[in-house]
Amino acid sequence: LKQHWECCWACLVSHGARDATVGMGNGGSRNEPSFSLPQQQVVPLAGVPTIGAGGGRSFPTSTGVPATAQHETVEQVKNPLVWEKGSFRVHRSDSAKHLWEFCCEFTSEVPCQLAIHFRCREAVGSELLEYSPADAHARQPISRSYPAGKHTVTLSGPEGIDLKRHPLEMCWRYKKKEADVLPMALSLCDGKVQSVVHVSLEQPNARVADLQCMLLKQKVFVGGREYTLRDIYGLSGLGNDGKHDASAVGELCVICLTDPRTTAVLPCGHLCVCEDCARQLQIGAATRNDHCPICRGSIAGMQVFDLHK
First CA to last CA across the chain, in angstroms? Predict the structure, then answer.
């Protein structure tokens, strides 16, 4: 099925913290780009109180289960560099069993620079995120330039993955004991916005000599701030009178069909209910094993968004 997504990021800015949390959503838009590119928006959040979290307030219920949610105010800022997170993959080279080829896709509305760093550490520089080799086992970084449009990045041949020269366990697998060491960091930059993805290679079945890509984190660095991404489906349609896709389910809460949808179910990220129904839904999840009304996934929490225009 062909789906046209407009991506919207909700960035939860924490005071004094280096990282912020970001939500990516989707919904329709009346304003089409000059050529067919997915739209992503960085959404910084103002400092607002957390409901039910430490020091905050919770809503008592007749069942004794606290219905809690985090409140965030969102504000939209466009990002022109978009990684296609479902495109990251590796496959074995035809020339030798120990050689693998890596590929991924991205779209850019402006010319940009790509830098790929291997077995590296990340630090905040004066204007952008910077990367340095973790040790002598790190490969030399790869740099490329791209015009605006949709592109496929391929590492093959001498640039590919050589497991004899750079073993999986040492160079390509993420380890908690070396949490600050990134197996791969791919960075897109247009001079003002930096879009980064951290990638690890994993062997899902020890008995089968097969590899797969695992995305550890996606983030954007803009205006001197770092934003970590997570999926919030329907956020871009919040407060919009236009049409929306199936995830947005229109403006109204899918349960009461009366109040505006402002609350996302976690961890699936479907923004589909109002705050009052979210409280009851979270109580039901704790007492009756209720599920997300969109995907029927489990409910771990709720996130309330208030759009600041």
Answer: 33
User: For the chain, what is the total number of helices (H) and then of strands (E)?
Assistant: 1, 21
At 296, phi and psi to the nearest 5?
65, 20
Instruction: Give percent of the chain with pLDDT exceeding 70.
Output: 67
Distance of CA 169 to the CA centre of its chain: 26
Measured distance CA(187)–CA(176) in Å, rounded: 22
pLDDT tens for each residue of 208-245: 678 999 999 999 998 888 887 776 776 665 555 444 44
Separation of alpha carbons 187 and 86, rounded Å: 17
Q: How far apart are CA 171 and CA 184, in angstroms?
A: 9
3-state secondary structure of 275: helix
Any residues with CB less than 8 A from the CB of 298 and at least 6 apart, and which?
267, 285, 291, 292
Q: Are residues 280 and 265 in contact, defined by beta-carbon separation less than 8 angstroms?
A: no
Give the pLDDT mean for 13-21. 38
